[in-house]
Specification:
Elements (H helix, E strand, L loop, with lengths): L2 H13 L4 E6 L2 E6 L7 H5 L2 E3 L20 H7 L2 E4 L4 E4 L15 E2 L4 E7 L2 E6 L4 E6 L5 E3 L4 E7 L1
Parallel strand pairs: 3-8
Antiparallel strand pairs: 1-2, 4-11, 5-7, 5-10, 6-9, 7-8, 9-11
Length: 157
């Protein structure tokens, strides 16, 4: 699903006075739930916080060459993925002039902001749910992301 489709769904929800909708298409599940109450301009500008879903990245077993203990592969099996909780635009920093929130090789803490995903002009801080070291950044800055798309690979410490 892309941002345009989500906007259309939200428009239909408002038009038909729906509070919640859940869709599944091509293996992607999206649940949109309207919160009660009035949205004010001040609440629109505040960044929202989202919990980031983590999954263990598993790869098919590979043959380890003779004389290799396999220690190089152990870290890749334990990697956790930080995934996008929404469709939007991925930003590595708070502004174009600011340094990136995280870099490859950097140790991150639970609750640390790792990036921003902009969705419908709202800047949503994405926070880590794992203590570890960033080993890979999967998305280039200012690129669109889909729901569930892997943003970072983290080696837990």
């Amino acid at each position: 699903m892309n941002l345009k489709e989500i906007r259309e769904i939200i428009h239909l929800m408002n038009e038909h006075n729906l509070c919640e909708i859940e869709l599944e298409r091509d293996g992607t599940k999206v649940k949109i739930k309207k919160t009660p109450g009035e949205v004010t301009e001040s609440t629109r500008r505040q960044p929202r916080e989202y919990a980031v879903e983590m999954q263990v990245a598993t790869k098919p077993a590979e043959a380890i060459p003779a004389g290799n203990s396999g220690a190089e592969r152990v870290g890749s099996v334990n990697r956790k993925e930080i995934k996008s909780p929404m469709v939007g635009t991925f930003y590595r920093a708070a502004s174009p002039e600011a340094p990136s929130f995280v870099e490859i090789g950097q140790t991150i803490e639970v609750g640390q902001v790792v990036c921003i995903v902009e969705a419908m002009k709202l800047m949503n801080e994405i926070k880590s749910e794992v203590h570890g070291k960033i080993v890979e950044v999967h998305i280039a800055n200012a690129q669109p992301v889909e729901f569930g798309q892997t943003l970072f690979s983290v080696e837990p410490l």
